[in-house]
Amino acid sequence: MSEPSKAVLMQTNKLCKTFSNGGVQQHVLKNLDLTLYKGDFTVIMGSSGSGKSTLLYAISGMDKPTLGEILFEGQDITGLSNDQLAVFRRKHCGFVFQQIHLLDTMSVLDNVLSSAYLVQKDRKAAVNRAKQLLTEVGLDASKWMKFPAQLSGGEAQRAGIVRALINTPTALFADEPTGALNSAAGASILGVLTEMNSRGQSIILVTHDLKTALRGNRILYLRDGVMVGELQLSSYSGADGPERQEQVRAFLADLGW
Ligand SMILES: Nc1ncnc2c1ncn2[C@@H]1O[C@H](COP(=O)(O)OP(=O)(O)OP(=O)(O)O)[C@@H](O)[C@H]1O
Fold this sequence. Notes:
Keywords: ATP-binding, Nucleotide-binding, Transport. This protein is an alpha/beta fold. The chain has helices at 52-59, 82-92, 108-116, 123-136, 141-144, 153-165, 183-198, 210-213, 241-254; strands at residues 8-21, 24-37, 41-46, 67-72, 75-76, 93-97, 171-175, 202-206, 218-223, 226-232.
């Protein structure tokens, strides 16, 4: 039986981003036509400076493209004002970065709730969801009233993921989410992301790291602002270790990574 076709999350049409650096124009994204699908764990790879973060910021409404169109669930977001984009992001996008940026003066729970209250009117429901999500990512009640300085890097990133998911975003965007963590903490964060994706959360993640890339079911490779490679994989199960690793390595080696 053939697999049912996936719903489209977003499409870009001739997406371009140009920066002006000291009067010199740098064309970072060049006429990108890209389709991303709901439920996918999409990984964007490419060498340093290839435009991965720029792409992530453009498709998540964090930055505006220079030219081209972004259709997010069919809605063209390129014409939105800054205020409209802020509303769009709050409703549809969760963000996880290498630097976690929790507010130092707030507890873990309040950090999460401060994002929830921007969107959700039902405070009791928000508190319940925050506690449930914190528990699901491995932060039990003993951590909820701690301040960011009292957390390990991995715990802080777990809180960051909960903050990103608290408003049930259509897509979770992640830029090197394990980049600042040791390998054990990084692996546990990848476990959390994999689990969220297995429950249907669409994830778009930028990374340099092979172990991180293995979690994706679709790997896109960017070179000088152009998409030059794509690898489709099964969803990550953990049971397909060496074979999957070899497949991804070979894909990257072909691209000169
Ligand atoms: N705000 C900006 N102003 C000017 N130039 C920028 C800006 N943001 C990015 N660039 C330039 O665009 C290019 C691509 O940057 P980007 O951060 O998207 O690359 P990347 O592939 O994510 O790199 P890395 O893997 O090193 O993080 C770089 O040459 C960078 O200097």
